[in-house]
Amino acid sequence: MSDPNLDRIADQLESPNSRDRLLGLTALRDVSPVDAVPLIKKVLNDDHLQVRTMAVFALGLKPTEECFDLLMGLLADKDYSIRANAAGALGYLHDTRAVEPLIRLFYEDTDWLVRFSAAVSLGNLGDPRARKTLIDALDSPEVIVQQAAIAALGEVGAVEAVERMLTFVQSDDWLVRQRLAESLGKLPSEKSRSALKYLAKDSHPQVAEAAHYGLQQLDQLDQPSNPTADQPLDS
């Protein structure tokens, strides 16, 4: 017997009204991936761009075995917003097969939004193979791509990038400084600690707060995972 709720969503996704189709995609929020993906596929080639971009990103939130291949195919779409959403969705799948394709996409795509999404997803995947690409992304002319790269370098544990990242410590953009503080808290080094102490005095409260939290993170990372491991056992 079919599920009345799924039947209703299917009807919405087949409606000639784009608003109904958007509502249908929204209604998939509480539907299991195995039930949601066949419905998402109904609108992957929708004529309405907003419907299509929402469907593409939904593949990352409802992972099944076929989602990876579907998203990989969409990285070559002619519309930059589809490529950007596909790149972003791949980061949610946590499938490291996406690392090399996302690296190529970052270097080869000419649209900043696509490169931004690729950088964010490379950070979400946390794979060290992305380190060089993310360091290169720091030289991007778009500040938002720089922000994504700074955040992602923390996610991939690129301690070797700290010195290069410190060139942003006096950025005019407080969001850049905040991202830097958040990232340095994941990259244990003396230079990270010194920079965080400096940022803890930042004039913007959110930067200072992020820096204080980053220092706490470094303190935790400096602590041995098992403080009693080296203590002699009682005889």
Order of helices and strands: HHHHHHHHHHHHHH
Largest sheet: none
Shape: elongated
Low-confidence stretches: 226-230
Number of strands: 0
CATH architecture of the largest domain: Alpha Horseshoe
User: CATH homologous superfamily of the largest domain - what is it?
Assistant: Leucine-rich Repeat Variant
Over all CA atoms, what is the radius of gyration?
22 Å
CATH fold type of the largest domain: Leucine-rich Repeat Variant
Q: What proportion strand?
A: under 5%
Tell me roughly what share of residues is in helical segments. 55-70%
Regarding CATH, which class of the largest domain?
Mainly Alpha
Instruction: Write down the overall mean pLDDT.
Output: 94
Structural class: mainly alpha
Descriptive tags:
mainly alpha, 14 helices, elongated
